[in-house]
Specification:
The protein has 304 residues and is α/β, with parallel strands linked by helices. The protein is 33% helix and 18% strand. The chain contains 10 helices and 12 strands. The longest helix is centred in the middle third of the chain and has 30 residues.
Length: 304
C-alpha cells in the first residue's frame, strides 16, 4: 500500500507548462510492525520540464545530487510491513535535509526583509536548501528562483515531508512508547588511506544528540557481522533531518545510515547492481536487532 502527496505547481510553473508532480510517497501504510520507520529524502528523480528550462547543466549533472536509487534499499523492509517516507521530488528542487532557512541569497530573488536566513557550511559549499553549484562543475542555474516559487517549494515539499515524518513518529510512539527513524542515504565510495580502511557504512547520531548511543552501537555491530567496514559519525554525523526529529529524552530516536553506492549499484553507479540483495539482508537484520533493543530498553527514562 502506498500513499502519494502531490505538490501543486506554482503559477509560474504552470506558465512554463510543468505538470503537477508527486513530491512525497508514503510506502507501507497501516500500523507499523515495529517502532522503526524509514526516511529516504535524496532519492527523488522526477525532474519537471521547468527545471530543465532553468538549468545551466545537463540532466546527468543534476543527477549527481541524488542518492542514486536509495529508495530501492528499503523495498524489502516496506514489503515486510515497515513504513517509509520517500521523496519523489529531486534534491535539485529542494534539499529536505537542510534547515528551511538555509538559503543562499544568490539562489532566490525578492526575499522579504522579515525572512531571517542562516548560513551553514553546506550552503557555503553550494549545497544549501536550494543547491547552487557543484565543485568542478560550477553554477547549476541560469537565474535565481523568485521568492514565490521558493516559498511554494518549502511549503508544499519540505514542510509536507517533515510533517509526514513527524506524524509517522507520533503513531509509532503512541503504539510502542519509543520510535526510531532510520534516515537512509547513499554516499560515493570513500577512499581509505594508510592503515585506515574505507568505510562501507557510516552511522550518524550527531554524536549522541539524535539517538541514544546504544542504538548506533547495535547498528554498527550488525553491519560488521555482515562483513562491512563501519564508521560512526565520521565523516557523516547526520544533519538537519535527524537533528529535527531525534529527541531521545522523549523516546524519539533518529539515526542516519550512509551506504556506499558501490555496494548496491552497478559498476557505473547508475542502476541497481548485484549487491542490492545483500543490503536488503543487512537492513532486515539491523531493523530486527534495533527493534528488539528499543522494546527492551526504556531510553527515555534512562536519558533523564
Amino acid at each position: 500500500m502506498e500513499r502519494k502527496i502531490a505538490a501543486p505547481c506554482s503559477p509560474a510553473n504552470r506558465q512554463e507548462g510543468r505538470n503537477d508532480m508527486t513530491a512525497i510517497e508514503v510506502l507501507g501504510g497501516g500500523p507499523a510492525v515495529a517502532p522503526i520507520l524509514f526516511s529516504v529524502p535524496h532519492a527523488g528523480r522526477e525532474y519537471p520540464a521547468s527545471l530543465y528550462a532553468r538549468s545551466r547543466q545537463p540532466i546527468d549533472v543534476l543527477k549527481r545530487l541524488e542518492d542514486r536509487y536509495a529508495d530501492l534499499l528499503v523495498t524489502e523492509q516496506v514489503a515486510a510491513g515497515y513504513v517509509a517516507v520517500v521523496a519523489k521530488a529531486p534534491r535539485a528542487i529542494i534539499d529536505l535535509n537542510r534547515n528551511p532557512r538555509d538559503i543562499d541569497p544568490c539562489t532566490v530573488s525578492d526575499i522579504p526583509r522579515d525572512v531571517h536566513l542562516i548560513q551553514s557550511p553546506k550552503q557555503r559549499g553550494g549545497l544549501g536548501l536550494f543547491p547552487r553549484f557543484l565543485p568542478r562543475v560550477g553554477d547549476l542555474w541560469t537565474a535565481p528562483l523568485g521568492w514565490d516559487e521558493a516559498e511554494t517549494r518549502i511549503r508544499l515539499i519540505h514542510a509536507a515531508y517533515h510533517a509526514e515524518v513527524e506524524g509517522q513518529i507520533d503513531r509509532a510512539v503512541a503504539r510502542y512508547g519509543q520510535a526510531l527513524l532510520l534516515d537512509v542515504h547513499s554516499m560515493p565510495p570513500l577512499a581509505g588511506g594508510g592503515a585506515v580502511a574505507r568505510a562501507d557504512i557510516v552511522i550518524g547520531d550527531r554524536f549522541g544528540v539524535s539517538a541514544t548511543p546504544r542504538l548506533a552501537d547495535v547498528a554498527r555491530v550488525i553491519a560488521q557481522r555482515h562483513g562491512l567496514a563501519v564508521a560512526v559519525n565520521h565523516p557523516y554525523p547526520g544533519y538537519y533531518l535527524i537533528e529535527r526529529h531525534g529527541r531521545p529524552r522523549a523516546g524519539r530516536h533518529a539515526l542516519q545510515i550512509e551506504i556506499s553506492r558501490d555496494l548496491y549499484l552497478d559498476d557505473a553507479l547508475d542502476k541497481a547492481g548485484p549487491g542490492l540483495p545483500a543490503i536488503h539482508a543487512l537492513l532486515a537484520d539491523m531493523t530486527e536487532a534495533l527493534s528488539t533493543e528499543l522494546v527492551r530498553g526504556d531510553f527515555a527514562v534512562a536519558a533523564e
